[in-house]
Amino acid sequence: MIDLHNHVLPGVDDGAYDLEMALRMLDIAAGQGITHVACTPHGHDRMNEETDRLYQSVFLELQKAVEELGIPVQLALGTEIMLGVELLRVLHLPCATYHGAGKYFLLEFPIETPFEIILNVTTTAHRANRRPVLAHFERFARAMRTKEYVKKIREAGAVISLDAGSLVGQFGAVIEKRARQLLEWDVVDLLASDAHNDAVHGFRLKEGYDAAVKILGEEKALKLVNDHPRRVWEGLPWTT
Ligand SMILES: [Fe+2]
Questions:
Q1: Phi–psi pair at 6, nearest 5 degrees
Q2: 99 in a domain, yes or no?
Q3: Is 235 helix (H, G, I), strand (E, B) or coil?
Q4: Dist. CA 9 → ligand 1 center (Å)
Q5: I need a surface site. Which of 19, 134, 138, 194 has the fewest CB within 10 A?
Q6: pLDDT, tens digit, 9 for 90 and up, residues 178-201
């Protein structure tokens, strides 16, 4: 499995608070069958070169420690960018897109963001040859009032992701219901852990996958944790 959203990079946001915790988290991830982990610390539209240098240097430290310990996961760097007016300006930073490849990036919105804004931002990013992976789409009630809304956002160029834990009640019954609804509508492209620590808010991709199998069947569920995230990881063209 490939995880494209987590806060395992230590000491830079509200995720892993030190290297030891990050390594414990990655050990848990490997135990679930996760082979690729893209670290996505929080970022915003005021990120700059200094942020990039910080994330890159902590990332190299983590990568070195993982190699030394022989934890069988490959790492990459990205950022979970909170929407702001300067979004397009910061996308040139190497840490802003997965692998610094300038193509796919992880984007989050404030919870009350209306459908129209998510659609407009997706369209704008896509016109600028960037493809947003929308983090935890199940949180955006106003953007999933109907299946048609979600389809329009996807058609505009977004990759729709869910937090795997949402499918197993990690964020409460309302979010679980919405996450399941999105899967039933067949409008979800991938699952991600959004892991923040080595406890209850940890890597729970396998649990989410198991829940998805019950709704979609094994073949479709596998695409959400393997095939589709691999396209983002490798920077391949997106097809829906
Ligand atoms: Fe996150």
A1: -165, 170
A2: yes
A3: coil
A4: 12
A5: 19
A6: 999 999 999 999 999 999 999 989
For helices 205-216 and 173-184, angle between their N-to-C axes, nearest 10 degrees: 50
What residue numbers bound the domain in which 11 lies? 2-234
Q: What is the pTM assigned to this prediction?
A: 0.97
Closest by alpha carbon to 224, among 193, 202, 194, 192? 192
Q: Say what the pLDDT of residue 85 is.
A: 86
Q: How many CA atoms within 13 Å lie on the side-chain side of 34?
A: 34
| Residue 164 phi, psi dihedral angles, 5° rounding | -55, -40
Residue 193 C-alpha to ligand 1 middle, in angstroms? 8
151 Cβ neighbours under 8 A, 6+ residues apart:
187
Distance 65 CA to ligand 1 centre (A): 23
Domain of 93, CATH number, reads 3.20.20.140
Q: How much distance in Å is there from the Cα of 146 to the middle of ligand 1?
A: 24
CA 226 to ligand 1 center in whole angstroms: 19
Structural domains of the chain, count? 1
d(CA 149, CA 155): 10
Is 240 a domain residue? no
Centre of ligand 1 from the C-alpha of residue 4, in Å:
10
List the chain residues with pLDDT less than 70: 240
Q: Does residue 239 belong to any structural domain of this protein?
A: no
Place of tokens 């069988």: 72
Tens of pLDDT, residue by residue over 101-127, are 999 999 999 999 999 999 999 999 999
